[in-house]
Amino acid sequence: MKLSLFSPPASCTSYRQVIDFCVKNRLEGLELFPMLELAGYDAQAARSVAQEAREKGLTLTCCSIGMDLGGADNSAQIDKLKQWVDCTAAAGAPYIHHTLALSLTKNYGPVTFRQMLDRLIPAARTVFDYAAERGIQCLYEDQGMYINGTAHFGAFLDALDRPAGVCLDVGNCLFVDEPPEKFAGEFMPLVRHVHLKDYIVRPAWMPNPGEGWYVSAAGNYMLEVTMGHGAVNFETVFELLLRSGYDGWYSLEYFGAGDVPEQEQSIKNVRRYYGNACARAAISGTAGLLAAK
Length: 293
Prior knowledge:
Layout: E1 2-5, H1 15-24, E2 29-32, H2 43-55, E3 59-65, H3 75-91, E4 95-98, H4 113-133, E5 137-141, H5 149-160, E6 165-169, H6 180-187, E7 191-196, E8 199-202, E9 214-215, E10 221-224, H7 234-244, E11 249-252, H8 260-280, H9 285-292
Parallel strand pairs: 1-2, 1-11, 2-3, 3-4, 4-5, 5-6, 6-7, 7-11
Antiparallel strand pairs: 8-10, 9-10
Helix pairs in contact: 2-3, 3-4, 4-5, 6-7, 7-8, 8-9
């Protein structure tokens, strides 16, 4: 299992500390994100972080950017994404993943899905083509309330009309009340990268739990938790990926409450689930144990 880190522990104040955390926990990859030294669009900073990571034996797996292209005028966001493409190229990562309609509520006004596509597609094509010219592939994930779930995500890919890759986020599809194994099964041939996260899900008929909980499209309540403590069936998803022949990176994304202990427990859990999935996928016990490390 090739494990990468997307979201660093909250206590990290530099990418040097993030890299040390990866080395300590035997992670092999690092996914860059606009934070710490990379809070700005600085290609030199991206190059420096990448060099330090490689010196410690880490692979730069991807750059992920939270960007909202859902506004009526998204020209400024396009320019920022182009800058991040340049940062990705400077870091030597093969992929850039960026969000599309970032909001987790449909708060763009009275905008239908088709109208949202009319905003997103020209912007996404512009960024995709800019990245392709620099040898970088754009990835898109199931995220938000518009470009999420098998039907809407598939419609986006069809309209994009580009050889896009998929960043499978195993938790995000819960925002539209769809199990990750359904989404994974639909887009498996296009999966190039995987984000791992987990949520507790409480039904809509229960009282609102309060601050920190998200609300799904169907009104269910969701709380980000240590991987393995929530609703995501990691073993089933891993088995689907294994059977498909996926051999890419699994990147840990945890922005929930807590710090290093929650991150390290997540690492232990996903490794254990991956080992179990190897056995279920009829991979030899020895190979499964080696893959899970």
